[in-house]
Amino acid sequence: MNPVIENILSRRSIRSFTEEPLKESDLELIVEAARHAPSGMNRQTWQFTVLTNQEIIKELANAIAEVLDREGYCFYKPQALIIPSNKQDSAWGRDDNACALQNIFLSAHSLGIGSVWINQLCGICDNEKIRPILSKIGIPEDHIVYGLAALGYPKAEGKIHERQGVVKFIR
Question: Is the pTM of this model over 0.90?
Fold first, then answer.
């Protein structure tokens, strides 16, 4: 099978990571793949923030837990977060970031790194408990986070789910 198609079909969300740190060169490669995602009119209004500092990851998770009333929330204890953000007034920001996240997930999988989509920040970026943390890590005040990638080496394989959705060919 074509290796690109094989990578797409074999990727699963991973929700349990080892404590082994990720290689910086792998993270750089994954972000470069994200930067090559399509964007509306090629505007590329995004920013990619790579967070490996475990104290700040926990601080952000704790703030989200408090705001969303989700005791014990932890992003599944990843070794890194890649946080694409985009200008709030970008007409295609959500779509652009979704394309970038897909590139993140697929490139991580190709390197043996597990990933899972985290969407809890969408809608609460400007909350008084969240925005100061986002600002501290350099996410601009006029940016929103629609989703982010939690990354780490998998403790176990991801769960295989039956594929849903209708496919129709009109010939």
Answer: yes
